[in-house]
Amino acid sequence: MENRNPKGYVNKLHFIYIIVCLTLVILGILAMTIWDKEEAGIGLNNAATASSIVLAVVAIVMTIVDIAGQRSTISDLKDTSETLESNLNQTNDSLQTLSELQNQLLKTMDSISKSQEDLKDYISKLEKTYENEGPIDREKLNSELKSLKEKVVVLPNNRISNYSNIHFAYSKHSEITELSERIRFLLRSGNEFSIAELMSDPMISTLGITRAKLKDELTRLVRQGKVYNNNGKYSVM
Prior knowledge:
By secondary structure, this protein is mainly α. It has helices spanning 12-34, 39-65, 67-131, 138-150, 157-187, 195-200, 202-205, 211-223; strands at 227-230, 233-236. The chain has a two-stranded antiparallel sheet with strand order 1-2. A hairpin with a 2-residue loop joins strand 1 and strand 2 (233-236). The chain is elongated.
């Protein structure tokens, strides 16, 4: 292979070696020169002080340089905490609704159980009433049946609606979680995917989601730092 370095070029690694060797030689000469003198202690103290100052300056510079990264991390943590807080509030609301629904169902079950006992007693009473009678009085029978019908407990529509709403809320949360897991599973292959490519993949298309919903979920994952967006191409960080 042809050497493209200009004449007199010194390799960076070799240059470092030369600097290190030169420093050691200088330190050796200084040590031999002033080791027996009284100023040696003062010189070492000054060198230690200078080293401490240099290290402090380096630490300050590194802290200043890292401020941008810290701000980005704080912003990501803030978005993540807001998302977690929102999910926690939704979960608490759902649990509260479930608790109320459970109480309603228990009351309804008690009412149904009591109604069944009343129906059994009323039916037995009707049987005994008409066993010893001759012709059946239809008006009286209809009146008794109507009274019997009123004893039947019917579950209110609002309770069924509450159950449907809570089931829909949990289904929606489960769908979002499943979408996030499928996106990250696809991106773990190491390839970059556009939104169109993700939409066409069977793992995403079988969910029946819209393009806008997929984009919103990708944006959320990017804000959380779980997915990287490279000009419309998404990959795992």
